[in-house]
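User: Thanks for the earlier help. One more: N-acetylglucosamine/diacetylchitobiose ABC transporter substrate-binding protein. Can you show the sequence and predicted structure together?

Assistant: Of course, both are below.
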Amino acid sequence: MTLRRRTFLAGAAGLSPFVLAACATGGAPAPQAPKVSSTNGDAKNPFGVDPKAPLDVVIFKGGFSDDYAKFHESMYKKRYPEASVKHTGIQDVATQMQPRFVGGNPPDVLDNSGMPVPVATLASQGQLTDLAPLLAAPAWDTEGKTVGDTLLAGATSTLTFEGKALGINYAYNLGGIWYNGKLFREKGWEYPETWDGLMALGAETAKASIPLWTYQGQHPGYMLGVIMPMFQKHGGNEVMKHIDNLEDGAWQQESVRLVAEAMEEIKSRKFLLPGTASLTHIQAQAAWLKHKAAIIPCGSWLKNEMKSQVPADFEMQIAPTPSLSESDKIPFAAINNGPGEDFIIPAQAKNVPGGLEFLRIMMSVEGARQFAELTHTLTVVADAHSDQTSDPIIVSSNERLQAAKQVEPLENSMYPTWYPKLYEEASAATGVLLTGNLDAKGFVDRIQKYADKVKKDPKIKKFTR
């Protein structure tokens, strides 16, 4: 399953309510990006960048912060010293970028993450630049390869519409359940591979007056990020495919229902940190760092987001979601992983060649290594991190990733990108399941009802895989 920051945060907080489809193009023909070639014969400037043209870069300043982008901008300035580079770090991307798309003045590069502009809407309107020239261009610092040759599989898959790669997922995130290795050793606890084992662990942590679990309560999408890989493991990737394709009764499949029943057990056995529902993601993560809960779900950005609060002796370790039963179709080692942090180049950008060049810099080995050092997270640049051994999280992430590659992978979930309001509804239902009066049947029925509404709405473009 592709792991995107938005996949966690879009839930309870909700996506921006604006509807681009009603106003972005004002009924005019879809915008057309300038024709850009990647084969002009100049390996150092394959897109014909105007060395004096300004570059406008907008970055989601979330868990990864934006220092990495400032480094990439310095690389751009070194190559094009006469160009001015405007850097903007923001958080509510959709709200702040809506007026710029509507006004025909979007940035040259946009990190469309956090609370993003719905990318499916932008794609359907022709608002995004086809990145085929970028993928075919010579790699920045890997001789004999194109940019596309240097990327891990899936780098563009969730941002490909009608055969066109309209964005790149840059960060290679792992998502799962985090715990303190030092605390677990001291208590004699082991992270289990099965749900029954996890419930037994909850009984042990309770004896130590430590609740088993907390999560980013105001953003229950974090826990939906546990539920989805669990039902994929149980029933196989077909379970998610049925959901993505809006098939009748997809949310009422047995695997989804059984995982929902398992989640109910957290509530009935009081294994959740009291007050979790009211916590922001920062508050919940801070509580976990103070041993107010034994485990917490999150993605690879966790340490960078909490770096000022991580105790010196805290050994952050990530594990896959547990298997629901021994008969699960996909083994425990499969971990939620894949590209995230969506980078796009608007079709109406003033400097499309410069935007493409900026992404080429990001896909360089030099740029990717700096991102990893600053964020403790891998990138989609395939060979950039093999010799980065000084960061324990990078090392452990690589180990989990290599183990996951030995088993059937968890396929990408597409409905969060294709139908963001459906994802919002599923996340909200997850919060009520864990802390409210919704039971497992009510959970699957509520989401199925909304999925049926999406399926029947002729105004919503449908996708299949």
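User: Great, one quick takeaway?

Assistant: The longest helix spans residues 440-456.
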